[in-house]
Design a protein that fits this description.
Helices cover 71% and strands 0% of the residues. It is built from 10 helices and no strands.
Length: 182
Amino acid sequence: MGDRQATHARILAAARELFAEDGYDQVTVRTIARAADANVALVNRYFGSKAGLFAEVVATESTVDAALLGDPARLPARLAARTVRRMAAGDGDPIVRIVDRAGMSPEIRAVLRARVESALVKAIEERLDGPHARERATLAAMVMLGAGSLRRLLGQDSFQDADPDVLEARLTAVFTACLAHT
């Protein structure tokens, strides 16, 4: 890996960690540069702005791609399994902490909206056939994002005694309903 790629990777890693720990609004480009052993000019050259850096951090985090691969008939079960895994990971998942601490500035809302649109709604929609594919994909995304939001609101303990297999079976039924043609 060349110096440019190594510096780029260090900046991304530092930003990911700082955004997850302190939130977008609390982190400065200078803080990120210092943590990455780089200078502010390099951060701005590689990413354009703090918002551009945030967008790249969010874009590099996990998506539903793996859950979308395979037999379309098993898509509800794969989405359910992914949702249960993400719920179990809780605050250990960097993207969860990043989104939780992102703040609600218009530019960050736009970045998050674009990411959810492309990596979640559109990604699911592209795997669906039949009418109202976008509506059905949006419902599935609502369940996934809502499950995470509610778990964070209620705390990790809210499902500590729950059987993951039972949760997965129930969520499979929910995703089946969301993704149904009718």
